[in-house]
């Protein structure tokens, strides 16, 4: 299975592609960053990111696109652009018939480090470990995109298929409850 | 000049096309709503809206696309979808080389009724008046899209061109100040 992870952002949008391999490991296929110039108008910037996402999907033909779930309560100065780039990534996948999965930052941390409250540095170190790299790719957005892709590979099976929500195992139910709690916490913080 | 107005929304996205005509009036070209089915996944819904926006732009070939400016502080339950649809409208315009203008709800109300705090019903009545219709188009999203397009036609000249910001007339400066105040108010409310 090949997953293309997207850490959405208007200035730097992390993109990472990984393949699953036997023994709970993953292989790095490609990693990079789609960029836009902050002096351009927002429509031109969104178009630039959209075109780069299209190129990545056409080049790597993923089975799934995993995107960070953006909350309305995130950083107010950047949340609109981030949400819009996430939307563009969803449309890029949908128009190719590629399924989309959204993962919260806590889910990503939990999947990669075993701990939903892990620091950014721990996540990056684990990403390098899992992929057999001597160090995490730079910038951080690129490594975060890989973490998202790994999170999707290693998530509890079936958790993201709506149809399966009604036939969850206890472990899956715990995961779903944790996901729900995260969302409510974020709302409460607001 | 032909303006295509977009009142962004994931369930109903209002779209209205108007031409400017002599004597501070405007002619209705077309009005409607792009829809998506709420039982579909978000990626499929965004793709559906995106395709309908593409069709509207190809059919009506506007000179400008005017979109409601979405604030992070808007209705939390819908703001992400609204922002994403606004982003799709921007990309649809940018990939055709059509300039994009963003207008706040207060700007739209002020342009159409002369009063930035006007009620929704006043705006709709004025839209019908301006376009010579016996009543405002339904649903409200469709009429709001027309109001956006009219707002763009009737805005103080040059206010939206970045290059012109440095050579504003006093009236333009007032408008810009009002725009700025609106944004700060929204922030303060938050």
Describe the structure.
Two copies of one chain form a homodimer. With 190 residues, the first copy, chain A, is α/β, with parallel strands linked by helices. The first copy, chain A, has two domains: 2-155, 2-Layer Sandwich (Nucleotidyltransferase, domain 5); 159-190. Chain A has helices at 42-60, 79-94, 105-113, 120-131, 140-154, 170-189; strands at residues 2-7, 12-21, 25-35, 64-68, 100-103. In chain A, strands 3-2-1-4-5 form a five-stranded mixed sheet. In chain A, helix 3 (105-113) crosses helix 5 and helix 4 (120-131) packs across helix 5. The longest helix of chain A has 20 residues, at 170-189. Mean pLDDT of chain A is 86; it is low at 158-169 and 186-190.
Write the layout of secondary structure elements.
The structure is a homodimer of 190-residue chains.
Chain A: E1 2-7, E2 12-21, E3 25-35, H1 42-60, E4 64-68, H2 79-94, E5 100-103, H3 105-113, H4 120-131, H5 140-154, H6 170-189
Parallel strand pairs in A: 1-4, 4-5
Antiparallel strand pairs in A: 1-2, 2-3
Helix pairs in contact in A: 1-2, 3-5, 4-5
Provide tags for this entry.
homodimer, 190 residues, alpha/beta, Nucleotidyltransferase, domain 5, five-stranded mixed β-sheet, 48% helix, globular, disordered C terminus, hydrolase (chains A, B)
